[in-house]
Design goal:
Layout lengths: L1 E6 L2 H9 L4 E4 L12 H8 L5 E5 L11 H16 L4 E4 L10 H13 L3 E4 L9 H11 L3 E4 L10 H11 L4 E5 L7 H5 L5 E4 L2 E3 L12 E3 L1 H10 L1
Length: 231
């Protein structure tokens, strides 16, 4: 069972590395579901030894139906992530009807293969109307990994779907559970045979001043340690 931390800061990634996490999904703007991080953060985090950094390619919040101009921006971010030391990228492109956009995903897959980067299809998958069909297409595209909550709000609620995805995958792709993973449910999710668990670990800083441009967070070490202990 691999553990993947989802984070937008150096300190949390560094702590996860010290606790033997396999990977980190690096992003910015976690309050918006995660957006593409800046170059400085990528380079700093890629300097941490013994953990793979996988960079999210998500140029904006909202849906996952991207224009060709946005695809070009994602291509630039992909190449930049490779230059800065990333081991993989995380993305997912859907049509307006929420089905997998095969041609647009293929553009990024082929570039990632050229750059020797692993590819994870993120939770855009959980919006797809037919998960067996969508899983087949993601496998055929060449993704290494699928992050999913089993098409429910949390992975625990979607655990039966996650079990089915494992069967349908036939070992051709890693299935990683994400959303709502914590110390109380990590063991139940792990017992399904899932390949990995994905979660963030942060909490808002108390007594923040009323004048601000958004909430500020700090690492939640207790959550990280609690999940490790539960496993």
């Amino acid at each position: 069972m691999d553990l993947e931390i989802c984070t937008d800061n150096f300190e949390t990634l560094q702590y996860a590395a010290s606790r033997n996490f396999k990977r980190a999904e690096l992003c910015s703007a976690l309050d918006l579901g995660g957006l593409s991080p800046n170059s400085g953060l990528i380079q700093s985090c890629c300097s941490i030894p013994n953990i793979e950094v996988h960079v999210i390619l998500r140029p904006r919040s909202g849906d996952f139906n991207y224009s060709l101009q946005e695809i070009e921006e994602m291509k630039i971010d992909l190449i930049n992530a490779k230059k800065l030391g990333a081991k993989g990228v995380v993305f997912g492109i859907l049509k307006e009807n929420f089905e997998i956009d095969i041609p647009k995903n293929q553009i990024l897959i082929e570039l990632a293969q050229k750059e020797n980067l692993q590819c994870t299809f993120h939770r855009a998958f959980d919006f797809c109307p037919s998960y067996p069909k969508s899983l087949r297409e993601i496998i055929q595209l060449g993704f290494h990994r699928l992050l999913s909550s089993g098409q429910e709000k949390t992975a625990l609620e979607g655990i039966e779907c996650l079990k089915e995805l494992l069967i349908l995958a036939e070992g051709k792709i890693e299935i990683m559970a994400g959303s709502g993973v914590n110390a109380s449910n990590a063991r139940s999710l792990a017992n399904t045979g899932l390949n990995a668990l994905h979660f963030s670990a942060r909490k808002p800083i108390k007594n923040q001043e009323t004048f601000s441009m958004g909430l500020q967070y700090q690492m939640d070490k207790d959550k990280i340690d609690g999940i490790i202990k539960s496993l």
